[in-house]
Design a protein that fits this description.
Blueprint lengths: L1 H36 L2 E10 L5 E12 L3 E3 L1 H11 L2 H21 L7 E4 L2 H4 L4 H10 L3 H4 L2 E6 L6 H12 L4 E6 L6 H6 L4 E4 L1 H4 L6 H16 L3 E4 L5 H9 L4 E2 L10 H9 L2
Parallel strand pairs: 2-4, 4-5, 5-6, 6-7, 7-8, 8-9
Antiparallel strand pairs: 1-2, 1-9, 2-3
Helix pairs in contact: 1-2, 5-7
This protein binds ligand C2E and magnesium ion (3 copies).
Length: 276
């Protein structure tokens, strides 16, 4: 009877593995289809000047409305898209979409702010990535060319090719934001050698700085580090007035988070541009 049970376990285990494999194949097929059928869109989260609460930029964040499964969070498909390599095509789509969006806003007579587009490690590791982006942006009219920034995370910088991509992009004066700063492997000497534009302090560093002394000390120390690196800071994931006030008192210039605004559908983002 024990053997029976054992075999049953193995069968269940194998069928679980098979289900996993099938799910992955389905997800990969669905991601390809999503690109072809226009199921992705970008939403735009305001980046705010802390002292005036004025809009200084938008972060473009991808959204996927799956025809059967509904909205799927980027956290649930971007890592998989990276494993399969399809992230490179998704990333191209996101850059094109952001450019198209800024152009549309401009043609509607709206004032513009820079839009930052997230770039994945795999994209940055492609030898032709930087040259392709630079060529794409250089082909645009100046008003558009200067409104695109790129966000990348610290962990993307572990390879030589990625560093070389960043050097090429910054040499072409494309603003680069270091995303999720404070969560990953930080090679500070590398960061100090790159002509980065801004450091985005991860939400985990910002959480509770409104009322927790030890969080405040850690955040203050990293703000001093940002000062030493002569980099401006955007605080990510600001959710409360207390956090916003403490950050403003510390001299942080910019913030992004639910306290100011959730990511907005493009139609809603227009209201922000109209106030500029
Ligand atoms: P991220 O680039 O660090 O983006 C910030 C994330 O924090 C977004 O999640 C945003 O909606 C969320 N957020 C903003 N303010 C708050 C807040 O006050 N509280 C909390 N709890 N969350 C806040 P989202 O849109 O789900 O995106 C998750 C991640 O997926 C992004 O993190 C980024 O790493 C990745 N991602 C999104 N769009 C793209 C894309 O077009 N390309 C690539 N490669 N990655 C993307
Ligand atoms: Mg980002
Ligand atoms: Mg981030
Ligand atoms: Mg993140």
């Amino acid at each position: 009877e024990g053997k029976e049970l054992g075999r049953g376990h193995i069968r269940r285990f194998e069928s679980h593995m098979a289900t996993q494999a099938v799910r992955q194949l389905e997800l990969e097929r669905d991601l390809r289809r999503a690109l072809l059928e226009g199921q992705f869109r970008l939403v735009y989260q305001p980046q705010i000047a802390l002292n005036t609460t004025e809009l200084i930029g938008f972060e473009a964040l991808i959204r996927w409305r799956h025809p059967e499964r509904g909205e799927i969070s980027p956290n649930d498909f971007i890592p998989f898209a990276e494993q399969t390599g399809i992230i490179c095509r998704i990333g191209e789509w996101a850059l094109d979409c952001a450019i198209w969006q800024i152009k549309t806003w401009h043609e509607a007579g709206l004032a513009l702010v820079p839009v930052s587009v997230n770039v994945s490690a795999l994209q940055l590791a492609q030898p032709l990535f930087a040259a392709t982006v630079i060529a794409r942006l250089d082909a645009l009219p100046a008003y558009l060319r200067n409104q695109i920034a790129l966000e990348l995370t610290e962990s993307t910088l572990m390879h030589e090719q990625a560093l070389s991509s960043v050097h090429q992009l910054t040499a072409a004066e494309i603003p680069i934001f270091m995303d999720d700063f404070g969560t990953g492997y930080s090679n500070l000497s590398t960061i100090s050698q790159l002509a980065l534009s801004k450091l985005k302090f991860d939400r985990s560093l910002i959480q509770n700085v409104g009322n927790d002394a030890s969080h405040q000390r850690v955040c203050r120390a990293l703000l001093d580090l940002a000062d030493a690196l002569e980099l401006e800071v955007i605080a990510e994931g600001v959710e409360t007035l207390e956090e916003a006030q403490w950050l403003a008192e510390q001299g942080v210039l910019y913030a992004q988070g639910y306290w100011f605004s959730h990511p907005l559908e493009s139609a809603a983002a227009i209201a922000y541009l109209k106030r500029l």
